[in-house]
Amino acid sequence: MNPPTPPAPIAAAPVATAPTAPTAVTPATALNVRVLVAAAPRLTVRVTQAGTGPGAGTPLGQPAPLSPAAPSPITTWTVGVSGGQLTLNGRGAGNSTLYLPPSPGSMVEIAGKPYRGGVLLRVQDGGVQGVNVVDIEDYLRGVVPAEMPASWPAAALNAQAVIARTYVAARINPAAPYDTCATESCQVYPGLKAEKAEATAAIAATRAQVIAYAGRPASTYFSSDSGGFTASSAEVWGTALPYLRAQADPYSAGSPRAGWRIEVTAAQVQTTAARYGARVGSLRAVTITRLSPSGRPEEITVRGDGGTARITGANAGGFVRSLGAPGTRVTLSGLSGGQGALVLSGSGAGHGVGLSQYGALGLAKAGQDHLKILGFYYPGTSLGVLAGNTESGGAVLADTFPLPSVRQPLAVSSHLASPPHLASPANLAPHANGAVQ
């Protein structure tokens, strides 16, 4: 993809353009993330005075059609599209992209939600995309408490902060229209209102720390609960990464999804199987005929009046998830001779690759710090310091050192079950392309 046309600044001095990658390594505090937070035919954008006053990164100027005659505490724009160009409060902006850069302490409200930083507005498919441009550490203040309960131990929150920072650092790409999104398809980012003091403390305690492999940010996938055995990236998505391996995980004990059972009607199973290419007529039986190293289905055989079909590889787990199972460490029963329902019994929630959030909770309760937690779930990786970016846009890492490993099984206490006041973390499930659903 070619780099987008540099956006024009909102009500800005004539020469201002979109930020470009610096020519040398810059401090991590200068590393911004572009987060797609809204897309609609029209968007309302409200900018606090902190974002429009003298402290802003680029002076806003005073073009008569776009700015009020005198400064006001809050400036509001209704942003639309006409003739392929953006409009502000019904008047043509003369560009398909507009940019209000972040500045220290700046905040912006996009489609009714407040965010730290600035905003990039762009035309896309006849509508408007609102992209929050925010310092990576401020971005995490909204992400971490949305992905893990802020009431959890500091070591678990610290680990979540590091993997969330690594996840987005690996996706910073100036050639793309934005780096990440704000939904479960990427990392959940509700913005300012989601911030919690405990999560903010974890972000500060791990400032600029990322997980590295071969000198680059690692792929830090995570899910709610491994079900007692992490899955490899190869078995889930068909891409083998040496630090995303299948291994026993005794630390996830006590999750609300440690054991579950669902029933699915024969008609629903037949319809779902057909979507995976298993069209066998009236359904007679569904069985697991091969397991992966982590104990997840690697081949599922579907038998019907019209023949037999097999769902294999990553599709086997996808089929199980499509039936409504929270995880893929399952056994199948029932549906004898096409009668009754298919019963799925299993443990865990999510894809199971990388860090298990309930496992991080278990390790934290056992007295392990965040480095031990990360070393267990991403074996063979290093801890690096995010230093900034370069002309190519890739994240630059400073010195790295190997993460420690949990060499001996720890005593997992019998009370690791989540207390009633602990909420369940997000049940993330990345697609094969790396996005999280």
Structure summarized in a few sentences:
The chain has 437 residues and is of the alpha+beta class. Among the domains are: 8-137, no CATH class; 260-347, no CATH class.
Q: What labels would you give this structure?
A:
single chain, 437 residues, alpha+beta, six-stranded mixed beta sheet, six-stranded antiparallel beta sheet, 9 helices, 19% helix
Please give the structural blueprint.
Blueprint: E1 8-9, E2 32-40, E3 43-48, H1 49-52, E4 74-82, E5 85-88, E6 91-92, E7 97-100, E8 107-110, E9 113-116, E10 118-124, E11 127-135, H2 136-147, H3 154-169, E12 180-181, H4 197-205, E13 209-213, E14 216-217, E15 222-223, E16 229-230, H5 233-237, E17 247-248, E18 260-264, H6 266-275, E19 283-291, E20 297-304, E21 307-312, H7 314-322, E22 329-336, E23 339-347, E24 355-356, H8 357-365, H9 370-377, E25 382-389, E26 395-402
Parallel strand pairs: 1-7, 2-12, 15-24
Antiparallel strand pairs: 2-11, 3-4, 3-8, 4-5, 5-6, 7-10, 8-9, 10-11, 13-14, 13-25, 16-17, 18-23, 19-20, 20-21, 22-23, 25-26
Task: Explain this structure.
- The protein has 437 residues and is an alpha+beta fold.
- Among the domains are: 8-137, no CATH class; 260-347, no CATH class.
- The protein is 19% helix and 32% strand.
- It has helices spanning 49-52, 136-147, 154-169, 197-205, 233-237, 266-275, 314-322, 357-365, 370-377; strands spanning 8-9, 32-40, 43-48, 74-82, 85-88, 91-92, 97-100, 107-110, 113-116, 118-124, 127-135, 180-181, 209-213, 216-217, 222-223, 229-230, 247-248, 260-264, 283-291, 297-304, 307-312, 329-336, 339-347, 355-356, 382-389, 395-402.
- The strands form seven sheets. Strands 1-7-10-11-2-12 form a six-stranded mixed beta sheet.
- A hairpin with a 5-residue loop joins strand 19 (283-291) and strand 20.
- The longest helix is centred in the middle third of the chain and has 16 residues, at 154-169.
